Every structure is written in C-alpha cells, then in structure tokens.
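Below is how a single chain appears once it has passed through the pipeline. First comes the sequence as given, then the structure the pipeline wrote out for it. We keep one example in the README because the format questions we get most often are answered faster by looking than by reading.
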Amino acid sequence: MAESVRVRTLADGDWDAVVALERDAYTGLGLSEGRAALQSRAAASPDTCFVVDVGARTAGYLLALPYPPHRYPDLTRTETARGAVESGNLHLHDIVVAPGLRRRGLARHLLHHLTATARARGDERISLVAVGGTERFWSARGFVAEPGVVPTGAYGDGAVYMSRPVAAARQTRARPSLPPPAPTLREVS
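Resulting structure:
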C-alpha cells in the first residue's frame, strides 16, 4: 500500500527534521544557514512555509517569504521584523526533499502548494536563487534566469536569480456534448 503524501504548514515540532534536511543538503555547498536563520525566515512569513509528509515522516520542506523583486535573503543574517511586505513577489528561499525520497514528485507537491498560496495572496511572481547547478531543474519549471542579480559568492559559485509569473488557475472550457471532466488530484493538503 502506498503511503499518503501531505503538504502542510510548517509547525514548531518540525524544526529538528527541517534543520537536519537543510544541513545535509547545503553543508557540502557551504550554504547551510542553521536553525536560527531558518526559523527567522519562517517567522517572517509562517503562512508560506511548508513541509511535505510521507506517511508519518517529514520528507521535505519549503521556506518562502515576500521579498521585493531582485532581492533575496542574506545567508549571513537572520531575518528582521520588516512588517508587511507588499512586493507582489514571493521568494522561494529553500526547498529540500530527503535524499531517499527524491524523484517521487514531492518537490512538485511543494511547488504546486506554493504556487496556489502565491495566487491566493495575490502575488504576481515567484523568485528564487538557483544554487549547486540547479538552474536547469528550475528552468524546466518555468523559471527564467536573470543573470547579474546575485553577486559572485553570495550563494556559492554559479548561483543565479530566477523568477516566473504566478500562473493563473486553470480554467476548464465547458463542452456541451461531454460531461465535465473528473477532478484530478494534484496534491494532498
């Protein structure tokens, strides 16, 4: 029997798992931020930070926060209270899936959830900084590179700022001769 997949808002009890996933993913790149920085980013926008569970296991997480276009968190600092940021841009700061659970669509679940959240918030764009050679992965998901935004070394060698518009919700055109299409399950939330 397949285990259930659920995307939910990050909770206080998730931090040990999130910190371990982040450390394992980014230490080798010299980009691990540590608990205080991660928690400060989630505190800046708790409604845009999620975990994905597979069964009872935290299998991955996503941290996103509003940031003006062409700006991004400083890896050497924690977030400070900035009040409401009305930038229209939601910055996907961090997304990690446990190594043994990659290539199963879990990042896609997180990204779909983030896109729906951005759409509900009225954001126009989602941005990120692609690190560790992931530019091609993000390009395949509609993100476009904007070279020169990230200074050399700020997010490791070859880091590139990327963004994409928040896609409008899909509209199904009614066909009078056919019954409406059956709903599809995109993600479990």
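The helical segments are 15-26, 35-44, 106-121, 135-139.

See the next section for the split statistics.
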